[in-house]
Amino acid sequence: MSAIGLTAAGDASDPIDRWFPVARGEEVVARHIVQTQLLGREIAVWRDDAGVVNAWENRCPHRGVRLSIGLNTGTELHCRYHGWRYASGSGQCTYVPAHPGQKPAAAMRVGRFGAGEAHGFVWVNLIEPAEPPHLSALASAQATTLRSIYARAPAVTVAACLLRGYRFALDPTGADDSPTDAALVASDAYTIRASVHAVLREAVVTFLLQPVGASQSVIHGLLETTGETSGVDADRLAVLRHHNAQMTALRDAAEELC
Amino acid sequence: MISLYDFELSAECYQVRLMMAALRISYRRIELDVYPNREHESPWFLKINPSGRLPVIEDDGLTLCGTRAILEHLTGRYDPGGRWYPRDDPKTRASIARWLEVAERLAATAGAARMHDTMFEHADIDACRAGAHALFRALDEHLWFAEQSGHGWLCSQSHPTIADLACFPDVMLSEEGGISRLPYPAIRRWTDRVKRIPHFATMSGIFSASPARSALT
Q1: Angle between helices B67-78 and B90-106 (to 10 degrees)
Q2: A12-65, pLDDT tens digit by residue?
Q3: Which run of H or E residues covers position A159?
Q4: CB A31 to CB B181 under 8 A?
Q5: Can you give the pTM of this predicted structure?
């Protein structure tokens, strides 16, 4: 797998050779094509029927049309414009409707990026795939991926806002339902942990920032909890809504600064 | 037979065509040259609808203007099971009323931006796009929690309602008005689901989806 003439888009300090989450894994649903962007590069993310996730340059090599408006047939992507088909995994063109008898040349191949799944997210590396990072903060914890929030603010601004303070409730449906100040630790410019403790209980949100481009980012969140959890579905939804509200407030604060 | 006064590129007319297709209603189209020749403002059409707006249907002596009235009429008369607009379910009907109002705001923002860019209508284009993005944010959040609650439609039903059909066209055509849907992944999944409604009708700029996996296995 090779890089495709990459240059740093957006913040020149953003590292290209790094794994970033781009979507919650369960949102990369069958027969769908996720349209996202990382460091200014548009990416078509799709899962084949065997479960394999592909992250491709969102551009048909034939005429440059976005592949994300095409079709995911479960084994191939079909370009909407002239119907060229590209195989899951290799990205190799398998069929050109205008030349049905000809085997497409090996050079007719979409640009591919490194893709992998870990911690409930799909991760992409624009350069060389190794393995997505291991980032669990808590041993034997229950982990939940939160709703990812798009911000019209660069990752650096979101990180700065986050480090000024972040609050969430340990138990939004129970006795500890008022938000409290979280302890914040930045592992690097894109990974910030916010933790809240109580007796025998702990909750950590690991924020993973996806630099979309010079002025946009996505805030992904992984919630890990230890201690008693009710496991009731209504509570799960309440927890998701609580963190969605807190992360939306963070987004609004970051956008205020832009 | 129902007659539909129609313009192929109108998002509002497309709402009615989607409903007709989903209910398997056969109808006669009377095509108006809205752009560029403004036939909806011609004397013959103003006799049918003095407001000069599309869509209009004629059904069994009844002339109806406007998407909301038309969708209510079509479901009332041609959807005996009441799946698209449940008759005896006040909560769902209230939810549908809310999203039909959102559909009107989508038309005034995303729809107006598209008319500005493609048919040179006057509009405050920046305000239209900003308004559309604000609506899309709320829509994306609503649909994400709908998915988390185990259903995929706007109004808490196992079946789509007229609210989904009313909101879909201006959302799906938004890129023609310079409004990207890249920041709205839950909206993008919902548009795939709408496209997989049986007998889904396409229009210029809106394509069908690949078959769902479950439909094949």
Answers
A1: 140
A2: 567 888 899 999 999 999 999 999 999 999 999 999 999 999 999 999 999 999
A3: helix A155-163
A4: no
A5: 0.94
- CB pair distance less than 8 Å for B192 and A31: yes
Residues in a beta bridge with A85: A78, A95
Q: Is A220 helix (H, G, I), strand (E, B) or coil?
A: strand
d(CA A172, CA A225): 13
φ, ψ dihedrals at B126, nearest 5°: -65, -40
Report the chain A residue with the minimal C-alpha distance to residue B192: A32
H-type alpha helices, chain B: 11-22, 43-48, 67-78, 90-106, 112-119, 125-148, 162-172, 185-195, 213-216
Residue B38 CA, distance from chain mean position: 22
Cα gap B104→B96, rounded to integer Å: 12
Rounded to a whole number of angstroms, the distance from the CA of A73 to the nearest CA of chain B is 6
Between strands A41-47 and A53-57, the pairing is: antiparallel
The nearest CA of chain A is from the CA of B198 a distance in Å of 16
Taking contacts as CB-CB distances below 8 angstroms, the residues of chain B near A36 are 182, 185
Tokens of B208: 């069908």
B210 → closest Cβ in A35, A73, A244: A73
Residue A33 neighbours by CB under 8 Å, 6+ apart: A44, A45, A46, A67, A68, A70, A72, A77
Find out whether A45 and A36 touch, Cβ atoms under 8 Å. yes
What ipTM was reported for this prediction?
Answer: 0.95
What residues of chain A lie within 8 A of the CB of B182, using their CB?
Answer: 35-37, 42
Taking the CA of residue A132 and the nearest CA in chain B, the distance in Å comes to 22
The answer for residues whose C-beta is within 8 angstroms of residue B13's C-beta and 6 or more apart is B4, B6, B7, B54, B55
| Per-residue pLDDT tens listing for chain B (217 residues) | 999 999 999 999 999 999 999 999 999 999 999 999 999 999 999 999 999 999 999 999 999 999 999 999 999 999 999 999 999 999 999 999 999 999 999 999 999 999 999 999 999 999 999 999 999 999 999 999 999 999 999 998 899 999 999 999 999 999 999 999 999 999 999 999 999 999 999 999 999 999 998 754 4
Give the relative orientation of helices B67-78 and B11-22 as an angle to the nearest 10 degrees: 0
Burial A171-183 (b: 16+ CB within 10 A, else e): bbbeeeeebeebe
Please give the structure tokens belonging to residue B3.
């007659």
Contact between residue A205 and residue A222 where contact means Cβ atoms under 8 Å apart:
yes
